[in-house]
Amino acid sequence: MSNRLKNAIYGLAVADALGVPYEFKQRGTFKCTDMIGYGTWDQPKGTWSDDTSMTLATCKSIKDKRKIETEDMMKNFRLWYKKGNFTAHNEVFDIGGTTQYAITTGQGVNDVNANGNGSLMRILPLAFIDCTEEEIRKVSNLTHAHEWSTKACIIYVKIAKGLINGENIGIMVKSNKEEEPYHRLSYIHELQETEIKSSGFVVDTLEAALWCVATTNSYSTCVLKAVNLGNDTDTVAAVAGGLAGIIYGYENIPEKWINELANKELINECLF
Ligand SMILES: [Mg+2]
Fold it and tell me: What percentage of the chain exceeds 70 in pLDDT?
């Protein structure tokens, strides 16, 4: 098992669980300072959601096949949605519209209006295996096939790979010379909170997550900042938390939050 993958996946899962109780809440109407239960989805403390489930389904496929096999990943996504595999408590309580459509029909959606963060939130395991941009695109395409979604996945995996190799997040962010709609990424760390949206739109989610990672100096401040942006709290936090996990390591995730996290047996089983 790769310890670095463990850093990333625990970083993502803990952040997801911190955000779940506050999903859809408006910025400024709440303050997340610790792991709590219930709230939006009425789930017990430590429950992680679709973001972690689909990430684990992807990990398990890479572990089993030792390469990227999109049909096998889709099989795992179906097992998640239909049977509750890869969940915290054997239950699927949230799923994005585009993901649900794609799993049900077997067709990823290539539409400018189908650019939710549903492929970005599950793509992190690809940073831990040799893969081409084309392979990253194919994995995104399983659900989200529009170029904005696939580009978000490519940018995110590239940054994660850089961090794994010990690159500095500030330098990684500044080196992102991208065209619209990702043109703000190279100076994202200079923006004020009021300029950062934290919606489920993939561009907003990637911006918000990178803003949190680039403007904080510890795992906990990063993921709490992400949750407290409001709106798509769990996914913004999960996308930020995966990178923060790589930067700061499993041992710098508060032990209390790890202890409270649901179904760690499953998480450990899926790591490769
Ligand atoms: Mg979720």
Answer: 99
Question: How is domain 3-270 classified at the architecture level of CATH?
Answer: Orthogonal Bundle (1.10)
In tens, the pLDDT along 41-94 reads: 999 999 999 999 999 999 999 999 999 999 999 999 999 999 999 999 999 999
- Cα(49) to ligand 1 centroid in Å equals 4
Report CA(127)–ligand 1 centroid distance (Å).
Answer: 21
What band does 263 get if pLDDT is binned at 50, 70 and 90? very high
SS3 116: strand
Q: How far is the CA of 178 from the centre of ligand 1 (A)?
A: 27
Assign 218 a pLDDT band (cuts: 50, 70, 90).
Answer: very high
Ligand 1 centre from 1 Cα, in Å?
26
Those residues whose beta carbon sits under 5 angstroms from the ion ligand 1 are: 49-51, 234
CA 232 / ligand 1 centre spacing (Å): 8
Q: What are the contacts of 24-31 at 24+ separation with CB within 8 A?
A: 24/231, 24/232, 24/233, 25/230, 25/231, 25/233, 26/230, 26/231, 27/198, 27/228, 27/229, 27/230, 27/231, 28/230, 29/230, 30/228, 30/230, 31/228
Say how many Å lie between the CA of residue 3 and the centre of ligand 1.
Answer: 24
